[in-house]
Amino acid sequence: MIRKSKGMTQKYVAISLGMPVQTYNSYELGRRKISADLLKEIAIVLDEPIENFFENKLYETKNIG
């Protein structure tokens, strides 16, 4: 939800992380376990505090303008 709210595609994030889109998709769908280091890199690409990935509520868009 965070990625979508920022208007980013899976392809953009995957390329930014240097991995195939299929691999990134597997992380998003929970088919692959994610390491803390990779989660940190995803947070950087999405420009989002890492703690927001652990909240148990729906992500609310913080877009301005």
What does this 3D model show about the protein?
48% of the residues lie in helices and 0% in strands. Helix 2 packs across helix 3. The longest helix is centred in the middle third of the chain and has 11 residues. The chain contains four helices and no strands. It is mainly α and 65 residues long.
Rounded average pLDDT: 88
Helix content: 40-55%
Main beta sheet:
none
Total of DSSP H or I helical runs spanning 4+ residues: 4
In N-to-C order, the SSE pattern is HHHH
Q: Output the structural class.
A: mainly alpha
Q: What is the terminal-to-terminal distance?
A: 20 Å
Low-confidence stretches: none
Q: Care to count the β-strands? A: 0
Q: Could you say which overall geometry the principal axes of the C-alpha atoms support?
A: globular
Strand content: under 5%
Radius of gyration: 12 Å
